[in-house]
Structures are given as structure tokens and as C-alpha cells.
Amino acid sequence: MISPAVLEQPGHWRSLGLVSVLLIVISPTLPLLLQAFDWSWSAFSFGRDFVAAILRSVIVAAGASLCALGLGFPCGLVAGLYRFPARRLMLAALAVPLLMPAFLWAIGLSMLRIELGLSRNGFLSGASGSIWSFAALATPLVVFAVLVAVRLLPGTAIDAARLAGGERAVLRYAGYAALPAGVTACLLGGILSLSDPGPGQILGFSGVATQILISFSALYDFELAAQQGLVTAAIVLLAASPLIWLVARHLTLALLPREVRLMEPRSSRTADWAGPALFGVTLLMALLAPVAGLAQPVLSELWLDSVVTTVARTGGNTLFYSAVAGLVATASAVPLAICATRVASLRASLLAGLLLILVLPPAVGALGTVLMASEAPVWLDPIFRSRFTVAAVLGLRLTAIPTVVLMRAIGSAPASWALAGALHGVPLLTYLRRVLAPFLAGPIFMSIALVALVATADITTVLLLQPPGQDSLSIALFTVMANAPESMVASLCLAYLLLGCLVIGALMFLMSLKGRLPRVGR
Amino acid sequence: MRMKVVSVTAATIVATCAAGCLESPEAPHEVVVYSSVDEIFARPIAQQFKNETGIQVRLVPDTEETKSTGLLNRLMAEKARPQADVFWSGDPVRAAILKSRDISEPYRSPQADGLPVRYSDPQGHWAGFSARARVLIYNTSLVPETERPTSVMDLLDSRFRGSACLANPLFGTTSMHAAALFQVLGEVNAREFFTRFIENGGTIVSSNGEVRRRVAAGDFAIGITDTDDFNVALRERKPVGIVYPDHDGIGTLVIPNAAVLIAGAPNPEGGKRFIDFLLSPETEEALAHSAAAQMPVRSGIPIPAYVRSLTEITPMQVDYDKLADELERLSNGFLREWVTRHSR
Amino acid sequence: MNPIVQLKNIAKEFHAVEIFRDISLDIQSGERFALLGPSGCGKSTLLRLIAGLDAPTNGELWIDGQAASLAGRILLPAHQRGLAMVFQDLALWPNLTVHQNVELGLAGTSLARVQRRERAESALSACRIAELGGRKPGELSGGQQQRVALARALTAEPKLLLLDEPFSSLDIANKSHLYAVIRRLCTDFHLTLIVVSHDPLEAAALCSHAAVLERGRIAEIGGLQALLRNPVSETLREFVAQLPVPTRKESGAPARSEESN
Q: What is the ipTM of this complex?
């Protein structure tokens, strides 16, 4: 019998487990990465232009991260600590940008700029426009990460802070405690931007993602693209390593002894106006402004028939890809978080490994899988060439998101729970099933939902891996974009948004059935 | 209760995974078509094929709009064991790239008889049909009739200083256009064209769709795009005008579609039937009457009034078979540097 | 009589920092033994070694005549040592009800489900919280939570009960009541008790014998009354010095302040 005490003890199983699961997570990218190492290094990987492109991208990513942190952190903090009017509705609305591919937001901003008669070189274009597009997507990540972190804080600590210095002290304490989660989320958001050439292409900004896209789509040179991805990842990881080490050290915050009561949000007169005001600004930036640009053509004509036909054809696949991606990412994240959470150095290594996968463009994993599928025997097609493949590759790439959420949650579980189980002879599996899994149910649910939303926006992976004829709604939407009338594109965009809202609404309803998400005791 | 929830969740996961894994990747009586032609034009043709032959088409469409790595990459990666039977390319350059990488297989369709040989591969790796053209699109509110452009060289004119745009010449049909300019104008003149475009305040945008959107919105006065893009703007009653450029000079670049049979295709017979269908006069007529407004390359096909006949324009004299090599050279050299330097 | 717990030259280090060394100690069966010492002296760590939750860096640990731990190795896993423990933070599993918490404490036994239920109910009754079985830990008061932890510990019918400062946050009335409950349970179930505490009063209320840990060593050991009467260690001397005179007399401590006068 394996004792649950192992969960609290050091051991080689941690590193072994970590490496094994990371190998699975990274496996789709391996064929191209191995080719990249096998190939003579090109000047394109080290040339001045390429390095300058990396620098520009890092600046945009940092800008997007900071914007996301600046907007998302206070929102998450306030939504975690206080109740205020329309809080749930605004949280649901803020999840919508996660569904959208960044380039669509860029088109929205571009259209909005033209509508407003602003200059082509103004703040809605170029690097600043790209920062806006990416920040719109990173902000919800920060909000939800901070929200979960705040809701896992001990109730007595919040009470103590309140007694010591009123709401200001509460905000300071909770803010300090949730900062590592917020910084990690904005780091993830920024890093996701590095591999996405879309907004740059639309808004006139050329970063490293554009360079890699050129290697893929203009030079058809997979090795070069993979090599550039690796060089980018190395530089980004090097630059971000102090931050990674810092957040890895502070990401987990174990509950203090005797803390079985988590904080509950409460009403506050200030939060009644400050909450909606903060969310109002954030929603304006992250949702309403781009949607205003996108939806404007709908006013001329609504293409209901096309919308219904397209949704009927692709809705099932879209849900399948997203849901299974969420499940796969979370299923990978659970063992990773269990292996790494209790050891700071493993947490840092894990974060670095997962960020490396995120820096690589999705095409590296997708084409790597296609290469494996082409070499594999036909009987392996259900694994390599099925809808499940699409979902699995989508999910594995996004493993970082649930891993961060779950490391935070597992870190909150007192070590004595497992030790008490060990003393009473509770088998490990029973402990995991009856104690840890229910404790993690909320964060797991949120992880699946977050990955499902972000995965829905990934076009490249679905385009390259979908079994012929099994496209998703986002693919259908974007393959008609080039030559469909703007009103039709806008109708489909709105349908996509509305469906996303429905799914988010359903998820929130499920959460409300289950009660509060991260929950210990009452 | 919790056990039930866990069991139901587990059963759902297993069922969904099984549903994803166990589906048949390739049922009989179907043909897999990858297409870089926009879905809005390709899907009705696929449906028509199914109606006539009973063969289901599994269509995988692509678009440059997504700014994603496209289907050509997928075809290359699948080379060892392809899934596609046919690649329906929106231009002959991608078809020629497939040929150069041994991904295509020669096929001479009986339907190709009436098609001009200049729009097809001499070895039969791809066959060209219905064509688009590279045209100038201008905003009629911003460009008075007296200043109407007539040549691509007008993009360098001072009257369009700071108000001309061009899609990224590393991607899509603009890349083919760039290669064609190098072939027709020669290295020095073509380089000068691109250099002077920037000197005149020209802007690189992401795609031809973006050129159409932004010229129609008045963000730019003029740009170069494809006829199908222009036609979309026209149908939306945007204030745009079209010019088939260089009627008296180098001519207008004609871009035929290209049908390619994939080497080692899982269902080559189905693929050949689909190519036969694509190359038929009926498909050329259907594409001419669609929103794509494509020009039949055969003569004698009935076309609507808003579609130009190829005989009415001066086609640019290019060797389509050699454009792919030219483009590869440029993408690795001048064009790449030009784009990198001048994209903000 | 064989000691139920035997420590032979036990040492423990964390990251090359020595917590204690050369700890040798025998605890007899049925004895109620206190490990006293200031915060951070390593007494909780020593309790974890006895429980089998950690291995000593050096030395031997015997439980009931069986080698349980050697240097760097745990020979007898925690759940096979016939002991139970109430943790400092109680370690109640928050998502389970009180009844489920106690019943899951029997997971290591081969009892049938019905028997487990009965044992859990009887443990809850013994701790006088039978009526709280359907509640979750977060819905209970501090004293009730202590009793749940105690019930969970007792349900496995251990020979040895380890308490790691479990009552430090309780009010006096609750504490006194729980002391009485534990004393009664120790008698009823013939338990050996090891209590870790920094409070000699608490130790005196529960235990007959004690060892005082200071600076990684056992500073003194023996009958608790005797230790309080003639304290040698700093811990006990300071404690005794702070006691009001009548209490000192009651606790058996010498009236040192009078002597000093």
C-alpha cells in the first residue's frame, strides 16, 4: 500500500513523475524540435533582424502583461473579496475574450479606429494596438487567477487584516498574497502573445511570431521555424527566469494550522461602486471596444441562415475539441502539480518547461503530430488522426494554465491532511479520491473551463490536425472571412460570441450548483 | 452522490474520447479535398459534386486571413502518408511548390481538353481553370475620376503618397504577384518598384482582404487586391472602383485556380473524378456566377455582366511554372528583408 | 516490563541543520508522557519520528519491541505502528463530514463497512459528539473540532496516542473538559499517551512523566511532579518562577521566590 504521506515527502518519484508527464506534454513538438537540433543553425535564427524582432515582441508581451496585470489584478482582487452588483455577470462577460483569437480582436480594433477616424499610426495600431489586443486576452486570465488565489485565503487572516487596518489592510494583505498568481497569469498571457502573429499582421507590427510565420508559410521551412521557436524560447526563458523563480517560490501558500475556514466575500459600500467601475473599464477595453468594431456591419444585415447552418455543422466538433482539450490539459496538470507543488525548485523547473511549450508556436506541435501520424501505421490513426488528436494537442499545449491553478490549490492544502491519512492507513488512492479530489474539484473545474475557452480560439492546431470535414466553428468563421461580406462575418462573429456566452453561462450555473469554487470547510 | 458524479464524469470522458478515437477517418465513397480557395466559394462546388456523383467531399478549407500556418504545410508534413486526395489551390504557385516537393502526381484530365495550356503544368502536375486577376482597388470617394489609376506603377505616384497599401508580399496571391513582377520587370526594376513604394509612404497590410476592407473604409485611397475581393466590396455597395492595370503595358496578372492530385492519395480515383469536375466548363461557369466572379479560362463560357472575360484584358506574360522558384528565391532574400524592414 | 516506545541515540537534521541528537528515551506501556520544551526545540519533530511520518538521521526507534525506524529508514510504516495522533492543526479533512472523517480513519483496518460505521459511532459517542456526525469540520467550534480529531484518533483503537499541542487554542473550560475526557479514555482503552506541549500545566493535567527538550538535547527527564519540584532545565525553572505561590505549592514546586527572599 502506498501511503498518502509520500505526497508530503521528498523523493525521486517527484522528478521522475515530472519528467514523464512533461515528456508527454511536450511530445507533439518533439519531431520538429529534434529536426531543429539536427540542422545547421541558420543566420535567420541569430541574425540582427531576428533578434530585433524578438526584442520587439518581448516589449509587446511585457506591455500586454503589464496592462493585463494593471487592469486584471484589481478586478480579481475586488471580485474575490467583495460582493457587488452584477458581479457574476461581469465575471462571465470577462471570460468571453478568452474565446477569441487575438487577431479577431485586432480586426475589431482596426475597424473601430477607422470608425472613429483615428490616425493609422495612432495608439490603436502598431505595437500599442498589438499590446491592446493581447492584453484583452491576458486580462481575464489574470482576473480569474487572482480570484481563485484570493478565495483560497484563510478567513481568519482576512479578519485579522480587517481588524488591523480596515479594508485598506485587507486589500494589501490579499493583494500581496494573490500577487504571485496574478504575475504568473500575466506572464502566461504575455508569453502566449509571443507565438501569435495575428494582431501584428493586422495592426502593422512585425515581431518574432511574424518571422516564424514567414518561415512556415512563405519558406515552408519547418526546421528553421522550429529553430527560431527554440531560440525565442531560450531568450524569453532567460529573460523571465528571475520572475519565474520568484513566482515559483511564492505561488504556493499553505493554509496555516487550524485554518479550515476560507474567506467569504462580503458586501461593502465602496465595492458597490468601485467593483462595477473597475469591471466597466476592463470590459470596455477587453470586450466592448473590439466587439464594437467587429459588430458594426451587422447593423446592415444579419445572416441568420448562414449562422444556423454553420453552427449546426461545426458546433459539436467545437464543443468536443474544447471540452476534451480542457480535460487533457487538466489531467496532465494534476500529476504535474502533485509532483512539483511541495518543492520550490521543481515548481520553477515545471513553470519554465511549460512556458517553453507556450512560447513555441502552436504549429510546431500540430505539424510535429502530423509528421508522427504520417510515419505511424494506419492502425494508430485513431490516436494520431482523430478528433481526439486535435483536442489532445490543443490541451497539452495549454497545460501551463491548469498547472498554475492547481499548484496554487494543492499548495493551500495543509500537509497534515496527508499525514493523518498515512497514520490511519488510508491508501493513497483513497486519500486522493476522498480528500484531495473534492478539495481540488473547484480549481479543476475552473481549469477545464479556462483551457476549453482558450483552446476554442486556437485556429492553427485545428486547421492542421482536424480530420477532413471535422472543422470547428472558429475555423469555419475564419475561413469565410476573406471573401464573405462583412455583415456575414460579423454575424458569425456575434454568433460565436453568443455561443461562448451561453457556454460560460452554463459553466457558471454549474458552479453555482456546486457552491463556491475553491472551498475548504464552510 | 459524489461517487455518482465521479462515475458519470468518468463515463462521459471515456465516451467522448472513444467517440473521438473510433470514428472512421475515411469512409468509402468520399474524397478529401484540401483547398486554399475561400470556403464560401469552394463549399457550393463541393456540394454540387456530391449532388452529381453521390461522392461525399470532405473539405478542408484554408485562408490567409487567419494568419496561421496553412494547409500547404500540412500537405508537406503528411507527405509520407497523405490524407488528402486533391489540393484545390487558389493559385498555381502553391501547386508548383507541391510539384517541386514530389507531393503531387501528374494527372491529365479528359476535361482539360478545352483549357489553354499556358495555364497548366506541362508535366500535368496541376491544371489551371477559372482565374482571378490582380487588380487595383481604389476608394471612389477619395480618388476623383480624373486621378483614376491605370497601372501598378501609379502606387508610386505622388498623388497617392501615404495612401497606398499592399498585402504582405510573402503570403498569398501578393507573393505570386511579386514574383511575377520580378519575372516581367527584371530584378532591378522590380526592386525599385518595392523600394519606391515605401518611399512614397506605401503601407504593407496583412492580406488582400485587409486591402479591400481598408480601401473600402477610406483608410487608404488605393491598393492592389484580387478580383474576388473587389467583388465582395462591390456587392456590399462600398465606394470602390476597379482597374485591370497596365492594359497597355506589362498587363494584368491572371491567377488561375489549380487542381492538384496528391501523390499516394488514399482515394486517387475519387480525387481524379473531383478534378474532372473542377476542370469542367460547368464549374468554370458556376465560379463565374458565384460571388467569386472568376473568369473562365476557356472561351465560350457564359458569364454575367460584372465578370470580365479574359479576352477583354491584357494578361501579363509570365511563365507560371517558374514562378514558384522565383518566389522561393525572393522569399529567402529580397522580399523577406523588405518586409522585415518595412513592417513596423 | 518492555517499553512501548524506545528511542536510542536519535538524531535529526534538516538541510544539514541539526534539530537534536543523542536522544534516548524509554516510554512504558500505559504511561502518560509529556515532551516539554520551548517553541522550535524539536519536540514536534520527535513526535513525527515516533509516528513514523519521518525517519531519524541517526539512531534507532523501537515501538512495542519492534524496530520501527533506523537511520534514514522507516522500517514500520506509520499505519502499522498501532498508534494514532492528533495533529497540532487537527488535520480534519474539510470535505468530509465528521462521521466520514472518523470512518476514513479506519481505512487501514480490514473491518467490514458495518463494523466501521459502528466503531466510528462509538468513538464519536465516547468523545460526546455523536450528534455532530453529519456536519463538516468547518461548521464546528474549536472544541468540537478537537473532539472530532480525538474521535478519529481513537476509532482505530491504538495502543499509543500522540497529541501534538492539540489544545493550545482552547478556552480553559473546554481544555479542562477535554483533559478529563482524555484521562478517562486512556484508562478505559489502556492507552499510552505522549503529549507534546510547551505548557507544563497542560502536561501536568494529562501526564505523569515528562522529558524537557532544550537546545537539541534532553535537559531533564522523570516524574513530572518531581521535575516541577526541582526544576533543572531553563524551561521549567522559568515556568516555575512565574507561578503564583499557591499554584507552585499545588504543583509541587518549591517556593523559590520565598527562598530568594
A: 0.80
